[in-house]
Queue: 2 jobs
Job 1
Amino acid sequence: MGFWGTKMAQEPSPSSLDGNKPGFPKKILANNLEDKHLCNSCQKILRRPLQAQCGHRFCSFCFNKIVSSGPQKCSACIKEDLFEDPTSILKQGGG
Ligand SMILES: [Zn+2]
Ligand SMILES: [Zn+2]
């Protein structure tokens, strides 16, 4: 009488876990890829896009991950602040 241990089979269910992932890889949409199609967190193509209060978009997975530890400053907003640095050394001087 052999003893057969129970084997844990890990079968990913096709649809229920769909929102539990970051974005799609960019290669599936190589053409016409614009920033608005990309998640500001994982930098991939938005999966179940969510718009944050600031207007930036994230995958629902990424957004939930970000806010799970409390209110966060949006990484895209931080990036844009850098580009709008008022004390830029490229400031034009008057002659
Ligand atoms: Zn994402
Ligand atoms: Zn933002």
Note: The CA atoms of residues 27 and 45 lie 9 Å apart.
Job 2
Amino acid sequence: MFTLLLACARLGDLLQGGFITWPGLVVADRFDFPVGNGEARGYYDAQPFGKNRHLGADWNGKGGGNTDYGLPVASSADGVVVEALDRGGGWGNVVRVVHRLPGGELVETLYAHLATVAVNEGMLAPRGALLGTIGDAGGQYYAHLHFEVRDRPGAPLGGGYGTPDGHVDPTAFIGAHRGASPPNVRRAAHR
Ligand SMILES: [Zn+2]
């Protein structure tokens, strides 16, 4: 519960006057995929949004099995980390990043089952920056990235399946927000 409260406190800091106010944070004018050098190159979505009432995308390496274990997970867009911790259960390590869209709206991206976490709460997470690595939530699954996009930052974690409650189709969202800005990206290095 402390961690959730901490996340909310961070959001409170961010939301002064209805706008994100965080030193150095820029508007997220472009979103990329969190794997495969921003393009999901070499990956496939094994369980798209809505299938089996799934509330995210499950990015798996095309090599199958655990061939993607330990590969980099990158921030989808410029934002600030509001959660970075082990949530246990079926989640394992979770990172959440909040982004401010050009119109001022906030969205949250969520990255789960991570093997390692490379960021802390409150850190800026530029688009393409390393957040952690693909994992299996302590051996519960074949390694993959569970990735969500939510339009209500700070909502409860939930269970990853069910009726969308602020969850949007992450692949459709990214497709609609690739933007046209030049590639000012610090890419997470591919191993
Ligand atoms: Zn999933």
Note: The chain has one domain: 2-176.
